[in-house]
Design brief:
With 258 residues, the protein is an alpha/beta fold. The chain is 48% helix and 16% strand. It is globular.
Length: 258
């Protein structure tokens, strides 16, 4: 652990879903601020390797790439333990990996309905739960740690055709609050970020189809960039956010207030 004026600072981070989109932007912002980052990928190995090379070329602390199927609890645990070993502890865990799948209530096939819900909840919510369980002992031992969960506006606004996604993201908000209350005594903070529409590959088709409608619903008049979200994550990772815990920061341009 590195101390600045007697206070611990984030020096290592594991970012899940770091190969593309929001995760890539968060990992980049953290790395360029001097934090050594483990870049997790699920399927996009080439993107993760390319990002690691870019970060090295820009003088960031040596990053490394880790793989895990986040829907597999054992794979998540093994990944976190490996990162702790390679980086001598994980100071910051960013649970960002996730999927968006339609799960309408009128889905005719029950087995398909059940399997899809389990997949979405397992990937979006339980992956974070398993990563948290694995990283907490080390954070407690060191007396410091930060956990950032990436949720969604859907956690509050809800979804009509993708309720499993909304439920998984609402779970991330509640997970954050539970962590904050349970772990503060160990010096561990927990935060949540709830983006609205963001210009990512995952959202590209929907944004293209509904761009004007989406923008009309955003008082600030534009869809968020990945940098809008990464900037909030960088703030939460910094000492400026040390007295905050349990909070969810909305990054939606005013499109949904609660």
């Amino acid at each position: 652990m590195v101390y600045a004026k007697g206070r611990p600072t984030v020096r290592t981070a594991l970012v899940t879903g770091a190969s593309r989109g929001i995760g890539s932007a968060i990992a980049t912002r953290l790395a360029l601020q001097g934090i050594r980052v483990a870049l997790h990928y699920g399927q996009s190995q080439d993107d993760a390797i390319q990002l690691a090379a870019i970060l090295r070329s820009q003088g960031a602390p040596e990053p490394f790439v880790v793989h895990a199927d986040v829907a597999d609890p054992d794979a998540v645990r093994a990944m976190v333990l490996r990162c702790e070993e390679l980086m001598d502890g994980v100071d910051l865990l960013v649970n960002n990996a996730g999927i968006f799948v339609d799960t309408p209530f009128d889905m005719a096939n029950f087995d398909e309905w059940s399997d899809t819900w389990n997949t979405v909840l397992g990937t979006n919510l339980m992956s974070a739960v398993h990563a948290v369980h694995t990283v907490l002992p080390g954070m407690r031992e060191r007396g410091f740690g930060k956990i950032i969960n990436v949720a969604s506006r859907s956690a509050f606004r809800a979804e009509t055709t993708a309720p499993a996604y909304a439920v998984s993201k609402a779970g991330m908000v509640s997970l954050t609050r539970c962590l904050a209350r349970a772990e503060a005594t160990y010096g561990i903070r927990a935060y949540c970020i709830a983006p609205g529409w963001v210009e990512t590959a995952m959202a590209r088709d929907a944004v293209a189809a509904m761009h004007d409608e989406i923008v009309r619903d955003i008082p600030m008049g534009r869809i968020a960039s990945v940098q809008d979200v990464a900037g909030v994550a960088a703030f939460l990772a910094s000492q400026d956010a040390d007295y905050l815990t349990g909070i969810t920061i909305d990054v939606n341009g005013g499109s949904y207030l609660h």
